[in-house]
Amino acid sequence: MNAHRVCTLAALAALVSAPAAAQVPLTPRALGLGNGYVAAARGAESLWQNPANLGLPGTSHWSFNVPTFAVGADILGLSVGDVADLVDYDNQTEARRDELLDQIPGTGTDVRAELRVPLISAQIRHFAVGVSYNTLGNHTLQRDFVDLLLFGFQPQPGRYNINPQLTQGFRATYVDVAAAYGKRIPVSLTGALSAGATVHYYRGSGIVRSGIVRVDTLRNGAGIPNDIRVTYAGVKDEGGNGLGLDLGAAFQPVPNLTLSASMSNVLNTFEWGGGRTVKSVALTSADYVNGDAQDILDRYDASEADYVAGSAPLAVQGLANDLAVDTDLPRTLRAGAAFEPRPGTLLSAGYTGDLGDSRTAGLWDQSLGVGVQQRLAFLSARVGLASNLDSGTLLSGGLSLGPLHLGVARLSDGSVQGFDRKGWIATFGLGTASQSRMP
Fold first, then answer.
1. Residue 288, helix vs strand vs coil
2. Are 77 and 105 in contact (CB under 8 A)?
3. CATH of the domain at 114
């Protein structure tokens, strides 16, 4: 594999191995209903939406979900097919290379990705527990840098203006161990009112800031440029821990209508921390033209060392200083309604929004979604539509067949300089619940 593919693949891998927020729900049902799910969630799914739903009448006596996978990504300019061709560059024609480069805006492309894996969640009566693995990130790639990766160094004056600030990435990974309880509140109201709380223990697995830190033009003996050396570095903090508290309330004025609202991380003590390390690798034409993938990755990994601020280059210090800026876990508000006009039919709507700015917030800061679900024997079908209340839209659908649950959504997130930002979200999981219900 040559370095064209190595560098492209490395950049993309840094993203998808790398968002926990409004539009990558933890369950297929939530995605299929356009993420307007806070009032419809029941049983083990209430753990991730609103713990107060655990106290509502009609909740199963028990339920559980085992590994669920929820992944989402969107890309500016490029399509999924373009990315695949970019990674498999060796097999592309010269015309296709030009076409790929033309899909990137002048200021560069931006990839955002989020992976959430609830390893297990279970509910017994009013209690629920679960463990979820979360990783999210984004990376920008300047167009001139992509040009260098695709075509190697070309001795054309003015062709490259590589700005390190335009090729940078961020990634955060953590584990969430959660326990929830919901209880009916005995008040003089027509209908059922419940309240709930979820306690989280967060364990940080790593937070990374990376990017180009230096660009040097190399010249021959006559002073003529004959190469560009690009140095890429990453600073990482491993570890971190803390607690979080979610609160919620739910109300059923009539049996087939649920109003529900919750806020995650009302209180949060989580802080990133642990040993800080740095890695770096310098790329030259030897890598662009005939570099070996494993050699480049080995060089990058072999460079890992303890980070020492006093001896680090200024650009690397900049990455380190920016490492913990705006990285608090998001405080997320959810509110919505669910209505069952007849058995087997569910209508839902909900708003999800992150309060405050944080890089750990995901693809959208807020979303307003609606959805409908129809059950037919062992099959349930769902469709949903959501908006970020700006230029972003999400069209989703899903199916449940017995314990198997699937969800998929097409994301369109506006445009930059005439280039569209589009992506996909997909979820898959297994789950079941008792047929008996609590009064």
1. helix
2. yes
3. 2.40.160
**Number of domains within the chain:** 1
Q: Are 428 and 399 in contact (CB under 8 A)?
A: no
**Residue 119 located in a structural domain:** yes
pLDDT of 142 reads: 93
Give whole-number Cα distances, 64 to 118, 125, 228, in Å.
11, 12, 55
DSSP reduced 3-state for 96: helix
Contact 428, 405 (CB under 8 A): yes
Closest CA to 141 of 181, 178, 108: 108
Residues 6+ apart with CB under 8 A from 342: none
Query: How many separate helices (H) and strands (E) can be counted in the chain?
Result: 9, 18
**Three-state DSSP class for 320?**
helix
Instruction: Let me know if residue 438 belongs to a domain.
Output: no
Is residue 137, in this structure, part of any structural domain at all? yes
Q: What does DSSP say about strands 345-355 and 331-342: parallel, antiparallel, or unpaired?
A: antiparallel
High-pLDDT (> 70) share of the chain, %: 92
| CB atoms closer than 10 angstroms to residue 84 | 11
Range in 83-97, 217-231, 316-330, 367-381 the model is least confident about: 83-97
Using the predicted structure, report yes or no on whether residue 310 has a pLDDT greater than 50: yes
Whether the Cβ atoms of residue 426 and residue 408 lie closer than 8 Å to each other: yes
Q: Which domain range does residue 148 map to?
A: 3-433
pLDDT band (50, 70, 90) for residue 263 = very high
Q: pLDDT tens-digit profile of 122-136?
A: 999 999 999 999 999
pLDDT of residue 357: 83
What is the rounded distance in angstroms from the CA atom of residue 351 to the CA atom of residue 285? 50
299, part of any domain: yes
Which region, left, alpha or beta, applies to residue 12 given φ > 0 means left and ψ of -120 to 50 means alpha? alpha
What is the pLDDT of the chain when averaged over all its residues? Answer: 88
Q: Would you put residue 422 in left (φ > 0), alpha (ψ -120 to 50) or beta?
A: beta
- Sequence-distant (6+) residues with CB within 8 A of 292 are 1, 6
